[in-house]
Structures are given as structure tokens and as C-alpha cells.
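User: Fold this; C-alpha cells only.

Assistant: Input:
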Amino acid sequence: MQNVKGPITISLVGPFQSQGPTTLPKFDFDLKIGAQGQNFTAGAISTGDKGFIKLQGNTYAVSDQVFNAFKQGFQRSQAQQNGTKKNPSLASLGVNPKNWLKSPQKQG
């Protein structure tokens, strides 16, 4: 990231439907990242029972083993919240965007 000049744009959009406090939600997220005239697109889909990853316009099925591990992580996270009413977050889905960046720095 040191050599990136100019602004970086990031957007995450898409529908999200809760299936109850302890059930994995249904969603269809699209992630778009842009920098220096280059764009990267990705996304994730959950039907509640199956998962899919989207990369640069292609959609790939997630194995049942990986999806079930993701689902179990979500359920553990929900159980740890002890029934407190909180808005869904990426962390509640087992996703931590902070882990995606290595040595980020604010310049300027």
C-alpha cells in the first residue's frame, strides 16, 4: 500500500435479511475497491444454507465444510452476546476487516 497515490475508495453494499438472533442471515454483499484507476470487485452470498464467493464477476460455491465452519462461528458469536440486542456487524459474521491490512499508515 506504500506506493498507492491518491484516494482509495471502498464500498460494501447489498441486501441483508435476518433469520433470527441465532441463525445465519441471508445476504448478498458486493465489495468494490478502487485506487489509481484500478478496480477490484468481490462479494459474498449466504442463502442461510449455502455460501458463495464473488470475485471479479465470477461466482464460486463455498464447500459445505467451510460454510458450516462460518455458520458455527456466527452462532458462537451470537451466543457470546448473551442475547443482548445489537445490530448485526461484520464481526458477528466472523469477518474482521482490520486483519486484511498489513501495516496501514495515514499520510498527509
